[in-house]
């Protein structure tokens, strides 16, 4: 299952997206949304090749086994 994580400007024009990231979920019941991820993650993409993912939802725990990708290496 794939879930797209996107950061974009206030416009709805797709060409205005600053960047987009797709992560592959190992847990088919997991649905990651942008609001769940701390904003510092998006800011760090340009400066840090391996940013740390933090969540904004106190109920959400993102674990390495849930996500497949370079961010957990």
Which helices and strands, and how do they pair?
Elements: E1 2-8, E2 17-25, H1 39-44, E3 67-68
Antiparallel strand pairs: 1-2, 2-3
Q: What does this protein look like?
A:
With 73 residues, the chain is mainly β. The chain has one domain (2-72). It has one helix at residues 39-44, and strands at residues 2-8, 17-25, 67-68. It has a three-stranded antiparallel beta sheet, with no helix packed on it. The longest helix has 6 residues, at 39-44. Mean pLDDT is 53; it is low at 6-22.
Summary, kept brief:
The protein is mainly beta and 73 residues long. Helix content is 8%, strand content 25%.
The CA-CA distance between the termini, in Å, is 20 Å
Shape: globular
What oligomerization state is this entry in?
A: single chain
The count of strands amounts to 3
| CA-based gyration radius | 12 Å
Helix proportion range: under 10%
Tally of alpha and pi helices: 1
Quote the beta fraction.
Answer: 15-25%
- The strands making up the biggest β-sheet line up spatially as 1-2-3
Helix/strand order, N-terminal first = EEHE
Roughly what is the average pLDDT, rounded to an integer? 53
Low-confidence stretches: 6-22
Query: Major sheet: size, sense and barrel closure?
Result: 3 strands, antiparallel
- The tally of structural domains comes to 1
Which structural class fits the helix and strand makeup?
mainly beta
């Amino acid at each position: 299952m794939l879930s797209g994580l996107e950061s974009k400007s206030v416009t709805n024009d797709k060409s205005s997206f600053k960047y987009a990231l797709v992560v592959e979920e190992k847990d088919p019941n997991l649905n990651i949304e942008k609001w769940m991820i701390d904003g510092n993650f998006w800011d760090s993409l340009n400066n840090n090749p391996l940013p740390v993912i933090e969540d904004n939802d106190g109920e959400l725990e993102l674990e390495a086994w849930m996500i497949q990708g370079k961010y957990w290496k």
